[in-house]
Design a protein that fits this description.
Blueprint lengths: L5 H17 L1 E2 L6 H25 L3 H20 L3 E2 L12
Antiparallel strand pairs: 1-2
Helix pairs in contact: 1-2, 1-3, 2-3
Protein name: DUF357 domain-containing protein
Organism: Methanomassiliicoccus intestinalis (strain Issoire-Mx1)
Pfam families: DUF357
Length: 96
């Protein structure tokens, strides 16, 4: 299907919101990795916020793109160990 439906964008916003709620920064407080983790989280939250805005204005193409960017930041942060996601392989793509 090549249509972004209301159901599809709601589904992906929900998945990413659950992922945002689950992450915990794993890097030590005064480490460079901590700053990277905070930046990854900020990028994910910003793209998620953009996705919600675009959905509310009816721009489902940009909403879908933004929510996928948001989740990409979360997946990357989890995969390289910036975020502790308690081994969740449903919401995140981990290495093993």
């Amino acid at each position: 299907m090549n249509v972004i439906t209301d159901e599809k964008i709601i589904k992906y916003l929900d998945i990413t919101k659950r992922a945002l709620d689950k992450i915990k920064i794993a890097a030590p407080e005064k480490s460079f990795a901590r700053r990277m983790a905070e930046d990854f989280e900020n990028m994910a939250r910003s793209y998620y916020s953009d996705a919600v805005h675009f959905k509310e204005t009816g721009d489902y193409v940009n909403a879908f793109a933004s929510v996928n960017y948001a989740h990409g930041w979360l997946d990357c942060g989890a995969r390289i160990g910036l975020f502790d996601v308690e081994g969740d392989t449903v919401l995140f793509t981990l290495y093993e």
